[in-house]
Design brief:
The chain has 457 residues and is an all-alpha fold. It has one domain (6-84, 165-448). Helix content is 64%, strand content 0%. It has 23 helices and no strands. The protein has helices at 6-26, 32-50, 65-76, 88-100, 110-113, 117-122, 126-129, 143-155, 160-188, 197-200, 203-211, 216-231, 235-246, 256-263, 265-283, 289-304, 312-324, 329-350, 356-369, 379-386, 393-400, 417-436, 445-448. 43% of the residues are buried.
Length: 457
């Protein structure tokens, strides 16, 4: 096994810690040059630290205590930073203050509330409103997310930094829990537990989840917990965990067809019913006709109005401009959604010669490839899934997707489609090589005695 000298790891970790602090506390996203240079340095350090553990066939089976401690410390360093690369947190605080004062956040548009008595009582002022990136849209965040927003607002009712810190606590706890679950699952599947470092030390994961306060961290934790309980034959608990993931972000709904295929039709349908009932029960405190109408209207707008850092959609958009002379996002977005749904069913039920881990990676890859909006933090879910497979193209994407922050250099925002083409072109190239030439990127399974294609259920 290739082993990086321990002193080198210490030096790289110290340098990385300084870079995380510099990025989180001093660099705005408008300063793309400095932002990308720091991210590049962080990924070079990351590559150095995880190099011995990049293959599933590595023989070392004890977790590296120094590197796991470093993964946690890097996150703790960001505890008191205001998010510098995303403004989503201000909507979290807006929704949380509404909930903390007994109001249903699904029922009100921010612009309609501004300067009302309700807004003043809840501390929803013009300064906070000016930070919102979606003042004319109803909230789309599911109930468990809203509960965490409300708790943070209750604990820090008048302090923006305090609310951000309390919003970050569930993410930190989830990240620690995810690292523990990853090591346990990797051991269960006879894989190297240090593969969890591919996720734990990944700079995009650290910056976008803990640093920029995105709740994909909580989703990943509950999904891992669902898998852990599933392989432990605690099916009901697994279904409850998956429902908690869905109640944080709706994306894990994509895994329901795969769960049915893995468990078989009878057990799988029962599993899906339990997931559905638990998820619906979490929505009950907010239940109303307006909730259904408002949340679906916002989701519909998301797929048919918003566009950012897309891949397949941008190609189709260009073709649409050439044929029709205008942006046909509503037409293209609808049919991409249909193709996505059919692809998920195909991967779930027809990919029978691969493991569930590879199917999960395939589902998420198709979903993001056909999406009209792909923010950097979305890639963290692919990084988590890749830990259990031989595929490393999500790690390459995690290093390239910060190129999308070049959009924020000017006002109004303007995407650099050349950088987008570079981002996805390299990712597609690496993914193609890994699919077609697997032995170039992974030691032979016969030589190591360790499965290289992910976990089996």
């Amino acid at each position: 096994m290739i082993k990086t000298p321990f002193p080198v790891n210490r030096l790289v970790a110290i340098g990385s810690a300084a870079a995380y602090c510099l990025l989180a506390y001093t660099v705005p996203r408008q300063n793309f040059g400095l932002l990308f240079m720091i991210m590049l340095a962080l990924f070079l350090g990351y590559s150095s630290m995880v190099m011995p553990y990049r293959f599933t066939g590595a023989k070392k089976q004890q977790p590296d205590p120094f590197l796991f401690a470093a993964a946690i410390v890097f996150r703790l360093l960001l505890l008191f930073a205001l998010p510098c690369l995303s403004d989503d947190v201000y909507r979290f605080i807006w929704d949380g203050r509404l909930l903390a004062h007994g109001h249903n956040p699904y029922l009100y548009l921010p612009r309609e509330l501004l300067n009302t008595t309700m807004a003043r009582e809840a501390g929803l002022n013009e300064a906070l409103f000016g930070q919102l990136n979606s003042p004319d849209y109803f909230t789309v965040y599911p109930p468990l997310n809203q509960a965490m927003f409300g708790l943070a607002a209750y604990l820090a009712p008048a302090s923006l930094p305090g609310a951000v810190m309390w919003l970050r606590i569930p993410i930190l706890l989830s990240e620690i829990g995810s690292l523990w679950l990853m090591t346990q699952l990797l051991r269960r599947f006879r894989l190297n537990p240090n593969l969890a470092l591919l996720y734990g030390l990944n700079p995009l994961v650290i910056i976008e989840l803990t640093g920029n306060v995105h709740y994909e961290a909580v989703v990943i934790f509950f999904c891992l917990l669902a898998v852990w309980w599933l392989v432990s034959e605690k099916t009901t608990l697994s279904a409850i965990a998956l429902s908690l993931a869905i109640a944080t972000k709706l994306v894990p709904l994509l895994f329901i067809p795969l769960a049915i295929r893995v468990l078989g039709w009878r057990r799988g349908i029962l599993y899906a019913v339990v997931v559905g009932l638990c998820t619906l029960s979490l929505f009950l405190p907010f239940a109303s006709v307006e909730l259904v109408r408002n949340i679906f209207s916002s989701i519909n707008l998301y797929f048919q109005k918003f566009e950012f850092n897309a891949s397949v959609y941008y190609v189709l958009r260009a073709i649409g401009y050439w044929i029709k002379g205008y942006n046909a996002i509503e037409f293209i977005g609808f049919w991409l959604s249909v193709v996505t749904a059919l692809s998920i069913l195909w991967i779930s039920f027809r990919w029978r010669n691969v493991t569930p881990a590879v199917q999960i990676l395939g589902i998420m890859s198709i979903y993001f490839a056909l999406a009209t909006t792909v923010h950097p933090w979305y890639a963290t879910t692919l990084v988590a899934a890749s830990v259990f497979t031989r595929f490393r193209y999500p790690l390459v994407w995690s290093a390239l997707i910060p190129l999308s922050y070049a959009t924020y250099q000017v006002t109004p925002y303007q995407e650099n489609l050349w950088l987008t083409a570079v981002e996805y072109g390299i990712v597609v190239l690496v993914a193609s090589l890994e699919i077609r030439l697997p032995r170039l990127v992974e030691p032979n399974e016969k030589a190591t005695g360790v499965p290289t294609d992910g976990f089996h259920l």
